[in-house]
Amino acid sequence: MNAQLSKEIDKICQSFELDSNRLQQLVDLFIKSAEHGLNQKSSSKSYLPMIPTFVTSIPNGKEKGLLLAADLGGTNFRVCSVKLNGDHTFDLKQSKNPIPVDLMKSTTDELFSYLASKIGTFVKQHHGENFNSDNNDKSNHLKLGFTFSFPVDQTSLNSGTLIRWTKGFNIPDTVGKDVVKVLQYHLDEQKIPVHVAALANDTVGTLLARSYTGENKEGLTSIGCIFGTGTNGAYNEKLENIKKLPTEIYNDLKSKDIDHMVINTEWGSFDNDLELLPVTKYDEEVDKLSVNPGYHMFEKRVSGMFLGEILRNVLVDLHSQGLIFDQYSKTSDLPHRLRTPWLLSSEGMSLFEIDDSTKLIATELELKNMLRLPTTYEERLVIQKLTRSISKRASHLASIPITALIMKIDAFKGHNVEVDVGVDGSVVEFYPGFRTMMRDAIAESQVGSKGERRLHINISKDGSSVGAALCALSSDI
Ligand code: BGC
């Protein structure tokens, strides 16, 4: 590789490095920020949102019922019916509807009317008998748990107003609206016999689903988390630590012998002030292009939506320095797809990461397919090296909230206690080595290799839907 290019690549890879000292400081900062978030009545950009979810009981696997779940949070809108069999098992029917890109930037009514229509199509197809009933008779309505995976200021189990959009959605007139009311309005308008009984974040769903299925044989499930298009986590907190809960709600729950509530941390917004998170000029570019500049700064270094965009920015920068793709003289000559934000996907990176084909021929094909970008062997070596550095930083950062929450709730307290963490999302499920690299960083953290060995990080498939159904079941509305 030419010496100047090699020097520049080493410099860039170096800027993505995180040593264990910095990781430990970030863990401490996370704990501090979480505590602030639990105390502060109004949420501030500087601290974790730590949103009370009004979920106060964790399933035990005996729950029974037929419920609907609808899941808006990433690239697809999923509608499911979930039959909870009461023995830790469930049957699931589902439809997956890609969300048209223009709807992500349309109006509240356009988006929610589309969501309601997809729920209607699903119910007609799988539960047609409900359509024959009198639509005004609410007792015939199927209960639905709405997984809405964006920051929401939740005011009860079935109401919450949108704080801000993330992950490429940008519909300003939804901010401040109660998303349950809006969805119910559109369902009623379209005469769909469905009642929205609960609102749940996908991480809350993941936590509940894992507790229902009882797959957590190795220990109590402490955290539900998502590493997919976005990232976030939820855990069960002692009521007295949630200082921002209004006194009347706190007293009411206490009088019912309730002593815990699930908290949606919204950890995507960890360290928005960039006190300790690593910052490269590529991170700054990605933030500028996002729908929520200055927010969700942790997510923008960790989750699937952003990893490819970081790499794309590095490549365009290297080209502008005359170090790669020299058949194109100016940036405006580069293939259109390489110049277009968000088109370099983390799925593509997962292939570059482990490509061991001769001359990286698999990478060559993927780059032609995805970006119409012809490459030399040397350029592909560069791309692989950069990919590995970006994913290593992401997975090491991903270990921080897990370690911090485990420490905060003292999850290892007791004799030889083991702890279960339920995870879901495309990155943690499909990105090669992501979970292993995350564990490497946990071993280097304050909990050390002993803690890492006692921690089980397992995929909770369909967790968010099953969890939303469990929330709807527990709702008495
Ligand atoms: C949202 C969270 C969500 C996470 C994973 C983030 O962008 O703010 O509410 O849980 O993505 O889907």
Account of the protein in words:
This protein is an alpha/beta fold and 477 residues long. It has a domain at 64-204 and 465-473: ATPase, nucleotide binding domain (Nucleotidyltransferase, domain 5, 2-Layer Sandwich), CATH 3.30.420. It has helices at residues 3-15, 20-39, 108-126, 179-189, 202-213, 247-255, 281-289, 299-302, 304-320, 336-339, 346-354, 361-371, 377-408, 426-430, 434-443, 448-453, 463-474, and strands spanning 51-52, 64-72, 76-85, 90-98, 142-148, 152-156, 159-162, 194-200, 220-227, 231-238, 260-264, 419-424, 455-459. The strands form three sheets. Strands 1-11-10-9-12-13 form a six-stranded mixed sheet, with helices on both faces. The protein has a five-stranded mixed sheet with strand order 4-3-2-5-8. The radius of gyration is 23 Å and the shape is globular. The termini are far apart. The mean pLDDT is 94.
Q: What does the overall shape look like?
A: globular
Major β-sheet strand ordering: 1-11-10-9-12-13
Mean pLDDT: 94
**Structural class from helices and strands?**
alpha/beta
Name given to the CATH architecture of the domain at 64-204 and 465-473: 2-Layer Sandwich
Our measurement of the CA-to-CA distance between the termini, rounded to an integer number of angstroms, reads 66 Å
Helix content: 40-55%
Tally of DSSP helical segments: 17
Gyration radius from CA atoms, angstroms: 23 Å
Biggest sheet, open or closed, and with what strands and sense? 6 strands, mixed
Q: What small molecules does the structure contain?
A: beta-D-glucopyranose
Q: Find the CATH topology of the domain at 64-204 and 465-473.
A: Nucleotidyltransferase, domain 5
Could you name the CATH class of the domain at 64-204 and 465-473? Alpha Beta
Query: How much beta, percentage-wise?
Result: 15-25%
**The CATH homologous superfamily of the domain at 64-204 and 465-473:** ATPase, nucleotide binding domain
Counted beta strands: 13
